[in-house]
Amino acid sequence: MKKIVILAVCMFVLTGFVFAQNYSVQSVTGQVQREDGNSRVAVRAGDTLTSSTVIHTGIGASLVLAEGDKTFTIPAARSGNVAELAAAASGVRLNGNIARVDTGAATRAAGQITTASARASDAAEDDDIAAE
User: Fold this and answer.
1) H/E stretch holding 33
2) CB of 55 within 8 A of CB of 76?
3) What whole-number distance in Å separates Cα of residue 37 and Cα of residue 18?
4) pLDDT digits 0-9 by tens, 24-55
């Protein structure tokens, strides 16, 4: 019975290694680090990272990864495992919700400010005290 349990655990671990995706680091800009136990180690071009490797990109940094014929660019100020960051870079959602971004809010606010200032200048022209 003990041999069966050990064999099952070994098969499970071996299966994890076989199906783990490997990403090769094409280029690194700025400070990019990976977690190695309790410390962080700098990521260099030519390194190979597994999908479960946790990486951190600093401000102004970027990381270009390749997996097979696909290339992923991880932007600055991101932290997480390689699989999640590569999926986010490719536009694929693994889990969670993606919020809709309202890109027209800035133009609407600018339009309201312009309208408010135009109304104020029109009101000053209509005021009898301002005309005196």
Assistant:
1) strand 32-36
2) no
3) 22
4) 999 999 999 999 989 999 999 999 999 999 99
